Amino acid sequence: MWKWPKAQLLAALLAAVLSIIAINSSSHAAELYGQVLRKPAKISPERAISRYRGRENLVQFDAGEDCVCNPGLFSVIYLTGQNLPQVNIPDSVPVMAQKDKMFVPSVLSVSVGSTVEFPNLDQFFHNVFSYSAVKQFDLGRYPQGKSESVTFDKPGIVKIFCEIHYSMRAYVHILESPYFATSDERGNFVIKNVIPGTYTLNVWQENLPEIRQSITIKNDSTYLKIGQ
Ligand SMILES: [Cu+2]
Asked: pLDDT for 20-65, tens place per residue?
């Protein structure tokens, strides 16, 4: 049997160890977290009633614990730039349910290529459709316990409606970046496993101008307050 000369073997081992250390340090990932503090866009009371039936009082900023929130309370925060890692489709299927005549959640962000389930959890029929340029579809009417799905294969924003209940409205954000999050109703968000570097930070919120600014992520956690 051929044997490695001792010195060569040691050198090979050392090279292997060094390459593992290099991989680990270059892939050291950071966390970007923070809070979006922009107030939702103001809409007239008439529009609020038709669009957020039962949610009129929640157009204000201070959402309660049991928030049945209107879409304007949520933000989508995402990083764009050069040399982004590939998006990965998680094993868990993203869901936008129909519950109490609302889409829940009313703002959903997913990786491009994701398939979203739209289960009906109400005791009456709903329908899910969109005329958005990014994805046009109509899932027809279906009863409680049924679910239909849509695969979103292009990036962009898709507005979602129900043709039976005019007040139902939601947004699906389809992202090409692996670095994104939807804030909770208080604006809190976390984006994990970001490779340090300089990116463009994008912040979307319904009916407000989108924020775009440069951001440098270092090796540790970065906390951000946006829009105050
Ligand atoms: Cu409906």
From this structure: 444 444 457 899 999 999 888 876 665 555 555 555 444 444 545 4
Asked if residue 118 lies in contact with residue 98, where contact means CB atoms within 8 angstroms, the answer is yes
**Ramachandran region, residue 113 (left: φ > 0; alpha: ψ -120 to 50; beta: rest):** left
The residues near 64 (Cβ < 8 Å, ≥ 6 apart) are 58
Q: What is the CA radius of gyration of the chain?
A: 22
Q: How far is ligand 1, taken at its centre, from the CA of residue 140, in Å?
A: 11
pTM: 0.81
CATH T-level fold of 33-84+181-228: Immunoglobulin-like (2.60.40)
User: For the chain, what are the domain ranges?
Assistant: 33-84+181-228, 88-176
Give 195 Cα–ligand 1 centroid separation in angstroms: 41
Q: How far is the CA of 169 from the centre of ligand 1 (A)?
A: 9
Domain topology for 88-176: Immunoglobulin-like (2.60.40)
Residue 127 Cα to ligand 1 midpoint, Å, equals: 6
CA of 120 to the centre of ligand 1 (A): 9
Residue 178 CB neighbour total at 10 angstroms: 17
Residue type, 23: I
Tokens at 170, concatenated = 């939601």
